[in-house]
Amino acid sequence: MKAVRVHSYGKRPTVDDVPEPTVSGPFDVLVQVGAAGLCRTDLHIIEGQWAEKSGVKLPYVIGHENAGWVREIGSAVTNVAVGDAVILHPLVTCGLCRACRSGDDVHCENSRFPGIDCAGGMAEYLLTSARSVVKLAEGLEPAAVAALADAGLTAYHAVRKAVPLLYPGTTCVVIGAGGLGHIGIQCLLAMTAAHVVVVDPSEAARDLARQLGAHHVTDRTDDLRDSAHVVLDFVGEQGAEAEGLAMTRRAGSYYVIGYGGKVDIPTIDLISTERNIVGNLVGSYNDLDELMTLAAQGRVTLHTRTYPLSAVNEAMDDLELGRLQGRGILVPSTT
């Protein structure tokens, strides 16, 4: 099968011929990939930012936002059948540790993360687990939802955690209306009564935020200092970190979702103002299942550009150079 593999950090991946994965365990699910989302994390992987954390052996197949159709199942799989359209939770989890048993499977003690620490889904087929597949509602196509598997899930997870803080009359500032942020805006509007303010330097991104229903859209942060009960930072680098903290009011919460930068604040300032800094990593299986309900209802949709798998580096160039609005979706040619 064709697959996108990283051979060396600092160099772009290549499309290689590799063996197809095979079902061997009772809970295995083989998925024909219908679409694989392109994420900024994929750029960070190539840069080597994840090398030490993941410990992955090169070369390997990247891609952690995947959806497609079930092609084969293990003997114990009962939640999906061959032919079902599915979206894949990005983690393969054990179901037995305390985190899994409490529904916090994103912190599974025995998880694998396809596309990060083992072979991922920028390929024609991906082997995963019955615990990771969410059956799509009728009418939802893999290419329309693939990026919700990580970008959407991460955005939803952050909003879900912030919901108790966003009662009527509160203000939530969203930094970045791009690939993650445009999903977060929709989740906020679907799940809260907060006043949603969006900050983005891109005119195209601001236009998209307005189309999605944001209450106020701007490219300036000066007037927003100390204004937000919650800040959702979908950028997390290039100065957004300092701006996000500055926009958070006393006893407010700054949610870090995008990454690459550094949060720097004197501890006395945290104590004296009781600001909270909250990290966010993907989301649980239940989060993804709930997000698929919003997608089926048409309350969360993706703005995407589709590329063939062979054009992965063109897509990466578009993402890196800011030419890609919304999410890039790679579609294998397998039929």
Automatic annotation (TrEMBL):
It comes from the Bacteria. Its cofactor is Zn(2+). It catalyses: a primary alcohol + NAD(+) = an aldehyde + NADH + H(+); a secondary alcohol + NAD(+) = a ketone + NADH + H(+). One of its GO terms (molecular function) is alcohol dehydrogenase (NAD+) activity. Transmembrane segments: none annotated. Residues 10-330 form the Enoyl reductase (ER) domain. Signal peptide: none annotated. Its EC number is 1.1.1.1. PROSITE patterns: ADH_ZINC. Keywords: Metal-binding, Oxidoreductase, Zinc. PANTHER family: ALCOHOL DEHYDROGENASE 1-RELATED, VACUOLAR PROTEIN SORTING-ASSOCIATED PROTEIN 11. Belongs to the zinc-containing alcohol dehydrogenase family. This is alcohol dehydrogenase.
